[in-house]
Structure prediction request, 248 residues.
Amino acid sequence: MNILETKGLYHDFKGLEVLFDVNLDVKEGERLALIGPNGAGKTTLFNVITGNYHASQGHVFFKGKEITRSEPHQISRIGMGRSFQITSTFARLTAFQNIRQAVLSKNGIRFQMFRKLDKMQAITEETDAILKRINLDGQRNIPAGMLSYGKHRALEISMALATDPELIMLDEPTAGMSKDETHTAVELIRRLTEGKTVVIIEHDMDVVFSLADRITVLHYGQILASGPPTEIRENQAVKDAYLGELEY
Prediction:
């Protein structure tokens, strides 16, 4: 069963076409990697799917329901989570406060009720449990802006997952990380997304081939190929367009 589908999707910026007739399907429970050269339209596609942009033509379906014109907060409420290419945590809030914000959102608690939080033991316990899972319990009270880059990214991914989405969209989660940080991030993603559907944009082919059940290649705004990693690795058109430029 497909949890996510796009049909005949187009998007343009002031007449400049970025996506052309994109027909994407994501099966429930799979990990799909979306790869392609810079400027291929990968993040634009993420933004259209998650409601940050609205398609100029075509349709987006999530769990069988059309969400083409839905807003990001509406899409989040029905079970889709998103991390961004650039970290989007609250730099002045502590690691605990950042995660707690996501837990509050999942539980439908409004921002103005913050003064009552100390009495909400269940929220605190859930937040602490998430911090422990990502090995940040020892840095619970450190502002997000003071965390190392790798831990900052881990915090952001965990914020997206703290809302307990059925589908998680990860935009270059290991970008800018060292080799050791990347390895840690891959293991974290694998552990935290177990049993969930994941769509990931990633340039690091080691990460892609390590995590993905299936790979879709976007080139000049169109899907060039889609299939299991072994098939994509040997696809000559994909090598010519993208993989031939990379070490993998």
